[in-house]
């Protein structure tokens, strides 16, 4: 057979889902899911996506030819305006290179691959190409960078004492890293903590990035899904562009359009000049060609329709608010149950202060395991819960059992 070296296990999170599915207990809850669920715990096809799908199905001009290597132009240009703002100076000056990618994961990969080839990493003293990742971060970041020969170091992000941002430590790392280091930042709805810097903190972060000539690798997987407001969730990205921080941004339509399996995303690299942007685009095109040849068409067509049609765009914003508001309502209800009804020991304000799909509860791995083993509540052992797994029918059961393990 093949000469394979010992293979590591894949994702803990996929194992969790399998155990949940196999569990016959009627009140079981899956809080590991990285996807939105409605109040009946069902996946939700956005009404605007259904409408756009019908338009596409009935459009005689739609065929199954290849898209251009860099993607559907009506998609990439509208996607750039969505994240950078329609009046973005960088777009007006034609210095943004946008490429359609295999969702946010593909955008992270292509961004990392591009930097591994073309970025002047600080290499003094035999230093390896390195990216700074938040601790904790999305479980895939490490693998994505390591795959393209970029090592990672962690910067402290979560402060277990406050269940909030370790802001001083973050600034210290920014200040002490060698000039021109690459920092991965989540511009909204940090995964897995749900903790974001305030606008004032983003100002300070971007000031240090500029002073140190660092590069900002912005991974934005939750625009609109976090607060319900597309512009609000893009604030940090747009502010970075305005201030001239060297940067790229990874964009995903998995969460905000519920198009998880369609793999719709984009990478936008903001260059200092149009000439530089043209070169970047040509290199991105060469890299993408060797990996996927042509990106998938269907999801990009759906999103292009929604972004470019004013009525569909308005409806999408309604659908986004439906998702964001349900999640925010679950945060408030969980907070109320714990603090007012159950009087659970400890401070639970972080449940309502955190944003997006995930919440870091602050419970330890024993408590997390006890929830799974005793109450059939499935969550990762770092205490992260997906708020989307909670609904009006199961939230009380969850709160009561969380209360129990906290008191144990
Ligand atoms: N980045 C972050 C921070 C994420 O949380 C996710 C989704 N879990 C992604 C990127 C990529 O997701 P997708 O490839 O489905 O767009």
UniProtKB/TrEMBL annotation:
GO biological process: aspartate biosynthetic process
InterPro entries: Aminotransferase_I/II_large, Asp_trans, NHTrfase_class1_PyrdxlP-BS, PyrdxlP-dep_Trfase, PyrdxlP-dep_Trfase_major, PyrdxlP-dep_Trfase_small
EC number: 2.6.1.1
Cofactor: pyridoxal 5'-phosphate
PROSITE patterns membership: AA_TRANSFER_CLASS_1 (PS00105)
SUPFAM superfamilies: PLP-dependent transferases
Residues of the Aminotransferase class I/classII large domain: 27-402
Entry's Gene Ontology cellular component terms: cytosol
A Gene Ontology molecular function term of the record: pyridoxal phosphate binding
CDD domains, per the entry: AAT_like
Enzyme class: transferase
Protein keywords: Aminotransferase, Pyridoxal phosphate, Transferase
Reaction(s) catalysed by this chain's protein: L-aspartate + 2-oxoglutarate = oxaloacetate + L-glutamate
PANTHER family: ASPARTATE AMINOTRANSFERASE, GLUTAMATE OXALOACETATE TRANSAMINASE 1, ISOFORM B
Note in the entry: In eukaryotes there are cytoplasmic, mitochondrial and chloroplastic isozymes.
Subunit-level organization: Homodimer.
Family per record: Belongs to the class-I pyridoxal-phosphate-dependent aminotransferase family.
Protein name stated in the entry: Aspartate aminotransferase
């Amino acid at each position: 057979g093949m000469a394979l070296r010992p293979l590591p296990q894949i994702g803990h999170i996929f194992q969790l889902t399998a155990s949940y599915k196999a569990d016959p207990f009627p009140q079981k809850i899956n809080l590991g899911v990285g996807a939105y669920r409605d109040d009946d715990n069902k996946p939700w096809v956005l009404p605007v996506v259904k409408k756009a799908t019908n338009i596409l199905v009935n459009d005689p001009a739609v065929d199954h030819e290849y898209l251009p290597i860099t993607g559907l132009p009506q998609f990439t240009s509208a996607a750039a305006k969505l994240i950078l703002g329609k009046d973005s100076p960088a777009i007006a000056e034609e210095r943004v290179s946008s490429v359609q990618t295999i969702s946010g994961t593909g955008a992270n990969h292509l961004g990392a691959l591009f930097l591994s080839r073309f970025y002047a990493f600080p290499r003094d003293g035999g230093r390896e190409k390195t990216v700074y990742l938040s601790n904790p971060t999305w479980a895939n970041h490490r693998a994505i960078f390591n795959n393209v020969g970029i090592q990672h170091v962690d910067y402290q992000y979560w402060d277990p004492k406050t269940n909030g941002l370790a802001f001083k430590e973050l600034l210290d790392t920014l200040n002490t890293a060698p000039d021109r280091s690459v920092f991965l930042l989540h511009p909204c709805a940090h995964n897995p903590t749900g903790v974001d810097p305030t606008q004032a903190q983003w100002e300070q972060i971007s000031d240090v990035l500029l002073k140190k000539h660092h590069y900002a690798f912005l991974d934005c997987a939750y625009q609109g899904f976090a607060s319900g407001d597309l512009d609000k969730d893009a604030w940090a990205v747009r502010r970075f562009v305005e201030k001239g921080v060297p940067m790229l941004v990874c964009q995903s339509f998995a969460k905000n359009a519920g198009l998880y399996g369609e793999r719709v995303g984009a990478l936008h690299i903001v260059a200092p000049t149009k000439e530089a942007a043209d070169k970047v685009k040509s290199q991105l095109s060469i890299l993408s060609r060797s990996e996927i040849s042509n990106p998938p068409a269907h999801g990009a067509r759906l999103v292009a329709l929604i972004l470019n049609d004013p009525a569909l765009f308005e409806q999408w914003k309604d659908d986004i608010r439906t998702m964001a508001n349900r999640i925010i309502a679950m945060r408030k209800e969980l907070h109320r149950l714990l603090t007012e009804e159950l009087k659970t020991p400890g401070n639970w304000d972080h449940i309502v202060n955190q944003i997006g799909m995930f919440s870091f509860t602050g419970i330890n791995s024993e408590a997390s395991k006890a929830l799974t083993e005793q109450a059939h509540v499935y969550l990762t052992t770092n205490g992260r819960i997906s708020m989307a797994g909670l609904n009006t029918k199961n939230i009380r059961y969850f709160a009561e059992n969380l209360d129990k393990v906290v008191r144990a």
